[in-house]
Write a structure and sequence with these properties.
The protein has 192 residues and is α/β, with parallel strands linked by helices. The protein folds into 2 domains: 56 residues, no CATH class; 128 residues, HUPs (Rossmann fold, 3-Layer(aba) Sandwich), CATH 3.40.50.620. The chain contains 8 helices and 5 strands; from the N terminus they run αααβαβαβαβααβ. Strand 2, helix 5 and strand 3 form a beta-alpha-beta unit. 28% of the residues are buried.
Length: 192
């Protein structure tokens, strides 16, 4: 017997396939929530990678390395960043994935007196999610757009997923239009 969550996912997928066949890709994508969209993307990617073998039962199980970009200057992390950190640790713990955090700012750390407080806050939030070991990168004062930096890091480390709060887009730190161009892997966008 399927659990309520599995049943809902199954219904979402059935609706997606129906709309895809009878209407359009846009209508199909609009019919499902963000996590179902991500799961469908990963399932299709798994299907393509295995050249016709069976779809993965749980598409997220292929996620082995997750990126958590931090673009806000709040030394204690903004609500959106805290939510992204909690989601990242939850996914990584469930699927046995590694986490890399990249702290991005257009100013060097010398101009941010609360830099050490922010680093401690990042460590604390990830340890609350069960992670005391994770990759930590700082890309400060480079003069590049955060979206381009996220794309570079995701490409260099061959990441499977980027977890980002919509807060980063709403605050104009990350350009939502450039995400598809610069990010070579799925991006899980968390609503506020």
């Amino acid at each position: 017997m399927k659990s309520g969550r599995q049943y809902r996912f199954s219904c979402d997928v059935q609706m997606f396939v129906y709309l895809l066949m009878h209407q359009s890709l846009f209508a199909a994508l609009k019919s499902v929530d963000c996590s179902t969209r991500l799961a469908l993307y990963l399932a299709v990617r798994a299907e393509v990678n295995e050249s016709g073998s069976a779809l993965a039962i749980d598409a997220l199980s292929q996620v082995k390395h997750v990126l958590l970009p931090i673009t806000d200057r709040n030394p204690y992390l903004s609500e959106g960043t805290r939510q992204a950190a909690a989601t990242t640790t939850s996914l990584a713990k469930k699927y046995g994935a590694n986490i890399t955090v990249v702290v991005i700012d257009d100013k060097p750390k010398e101009s941010f007196p609360e830099h050490d407080t922010q680093m401690s806050s990042i460590r604390w939030h990830l340890s609350e999610g069960g992670f005391t070991e994770f990759g930590l990168m700082e890309r400060l004062g480079e003069g590049k757009k955060p979206t381009a930096i996220i794309g570079e890091v995701a490409d260099e480390l061959e990441l499977d997923l980027v977890v980002l709060s919509m807060e980063a887009i709403h605050s104009k730190h990350v350009d939502g239009n450039l995400l598809a161009e610069f990010i070579p892997c799925p991006v899980l966008m968390l609503p506020l």
